[in-house]
């Protein structure tokens, strides 16, 4: 089919706009990567935009060799894995149970869940609740409060309700109990949606700095994003390098004059951003399928 001149012009405009959008998204990342791979004192002179002028891994050596960052990295990895798995488990079980229309008081329960999604008690009541539950200044403050998401539950429930009822009814007629139905029918068919919700939940846990900044005072329990938030507001590089002994161990013959606070900040940003970016390609197929299914059935 031959396209008109107007269609060709519209396609060119769309391509140009999308290209500009891609540049605005990719360029800041490339700029930070170039600064993190460049000697700090050289980058401070300016002129480093897309490619490091004085290439070095020393900024990453300092960042990855810092004990506080090492602890925060393990905290972030642990909370992301455990929080995502527990969140998907709770979401799947709640959505599966509430998908039964014959469930007693189902409408009341759904109304209560919807109410919690629309209205919040505020930060201070939430803080008091965490205090009463003895979750403050503990690792579990990252896991327990975020184990259930009303939005994810409603999305998952709508997906389960879209599964043909004949499959579930035939399994029940063959004597399958609810957990058997969940394991043999619901779970295999829900992999695309679970992958999409899992990616959203994992990114939320990985990028969250708020909980570590307001609910945790022990520096050994803060996630890497909270450390990054503290670093971005720091005025002295000693806040990153720590004691003099630590500085000497990290230097090992390399002049610390080549290091600046900006280069350390950019290296920390890269260390905190690259791992979660590497996960997406492995989940892309399920993620796109899950989002499309959710948009059609929602």
Question: What are the secondary-structure elements, in order, as H or E?
Answer: HHHHHHHHHHHHHHH
- Strand pairing plus helix content: what structural class? mainly alpha
Counting copies of identical and different chains, the oligomeric state is single chain
- CATH architecture name: Orthogonal Bundle
Helix-residue proportion: over 70%
How many helices?
15
Query: What does the overall shape look like?
Result: globular
According to CATH, the fold-level topology is: MetI-like fold
Broad CATH class: Mainly Alpha
Q: Kindly report the name of the CATH homologous superfamily.
A: MetI-like
Provide the gyration radius in Å.
Answer: 25 Å
Total beta-strand segments:
0
Which blocks of ≥5 consecutive residues have pLDDT under 50? 243-254, 294-298
Strand content: under 5%
Q: How would a crystallographer describe the biggest sheet?
A: none
The number of domains is 1
Query: Would you tell me the overall average pLDDT?
Result: 82
Q: What do these coordinates show?
A:
The chain is mostly helical and 298 residues long. The chain has helices at residues 5-36, 40-43, 58-65, 67-98, 106-118, 123-132, 150-161, 165-173, 178-189, 191-207, 210-214, 224-232, 238-241, 244-251, 261-297. It is globular.
Features:
mainly alpha; disordered C terminus; MetI-like fold; 298 residues; single chain
Task: Itemize the secondary structure elements and their pairings.
Blueprint (H helix, E strand, L loop, with lengths): L4 H32 L3 H4 L14 H8 L1 H32 L7 H13 L4 H10 L17 H12 L3 H9 L4 H12 L1 H17 L2 H5 L9 H9 L5 H4 L2 H8 L9 H37 L1
Helix pairs in contact: 1-15, 3-15, 4-7, 4-10, 4-12, 10-15, 12-15
